[in-house]
Amino acid sequence: MKKKKYNRSLRAKVVKEALRPEFKDSKFLIAEKYGIKESTVIRWKTLYLEYGDVSLTSGFSKVLNKGMLENERQKEILKEKDERIKYLEEELEITKKAAAFLAKVNRD
Fold this sequence. Notes:
The structure is a single chain. By secondary structure, the protein is an all-alpha fold. The protein has one domain (about 10-105). The chain contains four helices and no strands. It has helices at about 10-20, 25-35, 40-50, 60-105. It is rod-shaped, with a radius of gyration of 28 Å. The mean pLDDT is about 85.
């Protein structure tokens, strides 16, 4: 089954209607009126409240998901770098102690 594509004006119309106080708990009615799923109305509204008009553009969810994946990848890289820094700091401390010990032994 092919995924439906909705244009920006329809998305804007649905979101504006979903934001109206009289439709606060009536996402199903809005979805039925426009022939879309209730979950789609909820997702569009949530994205609109968080990201504004840019969220109404076609393909925004893909861009958002790609950004989230990239963010997770960056977090993993940062964690690995932090672990490497900790390891190198410990190694440096051991090297300093060894150098101090050897310097003391050489004086004696």
